[in-house]
């Protein structure tokens, strides 16, 4: 077994920081973490309705996670910090080949890539998916694990705008891993479009199931 890369070690440090912060400030309830494959490349597809969704998943996931994060978040001291804990800066306004290469490197090394397939914070219902998730899943040969973060967008009782009430419960539900591609390994536009459709159905079904499970 090869030694973990600097990026992997950084992501593990990030996971430990996340554990302390998330459990210190809120009450995470984690369901289905056992479903995450213990080894090999994996993609977490996370719904995104709140600023803490990424750090929450980083903290409670059973494996270190490298999230693709918009470059606007890498400001001031956050830039070296996020880079140091293995997070990946992406320019969403263009085809960011550096970010794509780094993300594929994570998967090639058997790591976990975290993606918000909706692209940006919204309703968190997986209604608008970007094709990037399908590309990484097919090209990287990685199963997708859907992740639903529920309760992070509760508005009542907030002390700080944009954050859930302190000490409130936030549910993180990991789903069953699934393959996005058709098994051919091809990456044509048709294959990626079909994969995106397949992903959308799986993620939406997982979110509905997670809401039933948690009563959210």
TrEMBL record:
Keywords: Acyltransferase, Transferase
A GO molecular-function annotation: 1-acylglycerol-3-phosphate O-acyltransferase activity
Entry superkingdom: Bacteria
Residue ranges of every copy of the Phospholipid/glycerol acyltransferase domain listed in the record: 42-152
GO BP of this protein: phosphatidic acid biosynthetic process
Any one annotated GO CC term: plasma membrane
Any one Pfam family match given in the protein's UniProt record, by short name: Acyltransferase
Protein name (database record): Acyl-phosphate glycerol 3-phosphate acyltransferase
Organism, as annotated: Streptomyces dysideae
Origin organism lineage: Bacteria, Bacillati, Actinomycetota, Actinomycetes, Kitasatosporales
């Amino acid at each position: 077994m090869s030694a973990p890369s600097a990026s992997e070690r950084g992501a593990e440090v990030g996971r430990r920081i996340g554990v302390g912060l998330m459990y210190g400030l809120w009450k995470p309830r984690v369901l289905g973490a056992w479903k995450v494959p213990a080894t090999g490349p994996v993609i977490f597809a996370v719904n995104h309705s709140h600023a803490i969704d990424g750090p929450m998943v980083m903290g409670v996931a059973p494996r270190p996670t490298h999230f693709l994060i918009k470059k606007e978040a890498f400001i001031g001291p956050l830039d070296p910090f996020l880079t140091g804990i293995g997070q990946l800066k992406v320019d969403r306004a263009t085809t960011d080949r550096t970010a794509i290469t780094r993300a594929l490197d994570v998967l090639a090394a058997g790591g976990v890539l975290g993606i918000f397939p909706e692209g940006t914070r919204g309703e968190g219902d997986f209604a608008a998916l970007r094709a990037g998730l399908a590309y990484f899943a097919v090209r990287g040969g990685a199963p997708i694990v859907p992740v639903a973060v529920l309760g992070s967008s509760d508005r009542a009782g907030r002390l700080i705008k944009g954050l859930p009430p302190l000490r409130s419960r936030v549910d993180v539900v990991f789903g069953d891993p699934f393959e996005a591609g058709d098994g051919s390994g091809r990456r044509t536009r048709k294959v990626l479009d079909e994969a995106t459709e397949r992903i959308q159905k799986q993620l939406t079904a997982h979110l509905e199931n997670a809401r039933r499970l948690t009563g959210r």
